[in-house]
Amino acid sequence: MDESPAPSSLHRPDGEPVRVLVVDDEPDVTDVLSGVMGGEGWRVRTAADGATALAEARDFRPDAVVLDWMLPDLDGLQVLRALRREAPGVCVLFLTARDAVEDRVAGITAGGDDYVVKPYSLEEVLARLRGLLRRAGMTAEPGANWLTVGDLAMDEEAREVRRGGVTVELSRTEFELLRFLMRNPRRVLSKEQILDRVWAYDFGGRAHVVELYISYLRKKIDAGRNPMIHTVRGVGYVLKPDTP
């Protein structure tokens, strides 16, 4: 079964797909990220060290760079500074295991645009990149920040959810789970697919966590209303509009 969402409406001013360079020395990370970004319709290249990243950036001229902090040669800050000298407008998203406040401050102060800590949600990484690219002038259809399925609406950037016009308060994980369901309406998603996209790429495959968070979502999204989140026994879950 194809796991990729519908292609993104984001594109460069010349009409070409956006270009993203993923820099990380872990092949599993670059493989997963390049796969989901390719599913968005973006062009993706990868690099496993700082020197290769800078060479790829000169050749590829990316619109955004997903940058690990700890690389085998240069560190992420050195790569960032070199990128900024050659391409001041490129969007840079740090993706790193360094979660101390001082590290976040250093990354943003050095010119990083955003900062996501490992382990991460793939949906969150994609959403952060979409936001950076839109603010950088990449175009999208009007209302592209909103996902709508039936009377359920989500503003991805403001992180707001409403059903029937009523605001629904969600935790970060509940929001990411609902976002994945809403980006794949009427499509049955297995627990394994949900774990891969919503939880960390190395989460460990504990499917009972998916069941638990689906139950949390149902209490908030479906409580007192006709259900939108359905179980397909032995397969997974599907989100469908509340329509006859």
List keywords for this structure.
244 residues; alpha/beta; Rossmann fold; Arc Repressor Mutant, subunit A; 2 domains; 5-stranded parallel beta sheet; 8 helices; elongated; disordered N terminus
Question: Could you describe the 3D structure shown?
Answer:
The protein has 244 residues and is an alpha/beta fold. The protein folds into two domains: 19-135, 3-Layer(aba) Sandwich (Rossmann fold); 146-239, Arc Repressor Mutant, subunit A (Orthogonal Bundle), CATH 1.10.10.10. Helix content is 38%, strand content 20%. Strands 2-1-3-4-5 form a five-stranded parallel β-sheet, sandwiched between helices. Strands 6-7-8-9 form a four-stranded antiparallel β-sheet, covered by helices on one side. Helix 2 runs parallel beside helix 3 (76-86) and helix 6 crosses helix 8 (207-221). The longest helix is centred in the C-terminal third of the chain and has 15 residues, at 207-221. The relative contact order is 0.12. Mean pLDDT is 84; it is low at 1-7.
